[in-house]
Amino acid sequence: MSVSLPHLSTARLLLRALETDQADALFRLANGPKIADNTANIPSPYTLHTAQVFIGAMEAKYRAGELLSLGMHEHATGELVGIVSLRLNPRHRYGHLGGWVAAHCRNQGYAAEAASAVTDFGFNELALQRVGSQCFGRNKESARVMEKIGLRYEGCMREAFLKNGVFEDLLGFAVVRDDWERRL
């Protein structure tokens, strides 16, 4: 694996590592409505310190083969609009897809565009065999993104995650290498 985080380009987005001077933007966006509520690991409130630690660890986690996290930046403006990630399990050649999009940029296809590019990178450059993801049963938007990019619904794990004192259903989605290659 390369030691530097990749730069990936889509029709509208540049996916790349965040710079330390973007901590304030990350801090403001990650505190947006629904971000922590719809994700497993993002704290609320999301502090400036949390943003700084996240940015500072991005490259080391990638070099260690643990996590590929990239900022979603609009080509036209350079604006940070979200984060996309693959939590890596090299032993099983598996990537767990995750991410979020800022409230003012939702429903514009950015999540699907970024997730598709990172999934391509996972299969083509990281030699993954499988890419999967999960979302809370109530998060229809994330489920729609996963299906839109070709991940298949694999089932519901009832009350599998305790979030804010409530047991949440987790919907599972995945795609394997052969299916991803045949999608064209």
TrEMBL record:
Key words of the record: Transferase
One Pfam family, short name: Acetyltransf_3
A single MF term (Gene Ontology): acyltransferase activity, transferring groups other than amino-acyl groups
Ranges where the N-acetyltransferase domain occurs: 13-172
Keyword field contains Repressor: no
Superkingdom to which the source organism belongs: Bacteria
Name of the featured protein: N-acetyltransferase
Taxonomic source organism: Pseudomonas nabeulensis
Taxonomic path: Bacteria, Pseudomonadati, Pseudomonadota, Gammaproteobacteria, Pseudomonadales
